[in-house]
Amino acid sequence: MIRIPRSTYYARKTSESARAKADADLRDRLEELALSFPRYGYRRMAAQLRREEWIVNRKRVLRVMRESDLLCKIRRRFVRTTDSKHNFPIHPNLLLDFRATAINQVWVADITYIRILTGFAYLATILDAFSRKVVGWALSRTLTAEMTCAALNAAYAARRPPKGLILHSDRGVQYACGDHVALAEGYGMQISMSRKGNPYDNPIAESFFKTLKTEEVYLMDVGTFEELSSRLPEYIEVVYNTKRLHSSLGYLPPAEFEAYKIFNPQPQPHLSVGESCPI
Length: 279
What we know:
Radius of gyration: 23 Å
Strand order of the largest sheet: 3-2-1-4-5
Number of strands: 5
Number of helices: 10
Helix content: 40-55%
Shape: globular
Strand content: 5-15%
Order of helices and strands: HHHEEEHEHHEHHHH
Structural class: alpha/beta
């Protein structure tokens, strides 16, 4: 029989019990967070917990999430919504060697489809390239220029950016058509377009659509366009813009990142957007 002091034996048992209780408390909080952010991975979970003043590291969060089957399994999908076979002028890509260093320098626009039981809906969004915040969006039953113009009008009304802002999109007819170009130029914006057949020229918009679908659309059972219209604002305006943590923003939500930058305009190493994305 191994001779160890009785106090050592009970101390070890007490430590194991305390660790088990701490893991149980952590598991409870992770399960609560998973209800609000079902597609958060262990890195974002750890960042959120530290914001709540938990003393945890990523390895522990990963272990508890794995044991509790809380690790998300992201489905990747790609559907082409761009029709670039048109006779409208194509504008050059102004972002190939450009890095946004402040809000309202570059907006990125794109369209995605959302499947509902009765068919399809189309979502046009505009994001600020520096903060990743959705600044304007519009939902439509059809893939039209009216939708992209509505999103641009909403973004301009919300932000009132200075003249010279770069508005970047793909070459689709909804962005290249006369109505949309005239609207953008009327607001004093410079128009920029991706290279032909290259979705990676607009990674911020593509990333947002992936997040939207994996964290919201794929998880909700939407039957009608009206139901989708009633549910999207909550996710975009509240969850995504003000609550969801972004690794490229130093694990801050877009709205909080913008507020931080207003009072701390100098770039910080761990919050450098230019280092995390070429735009």
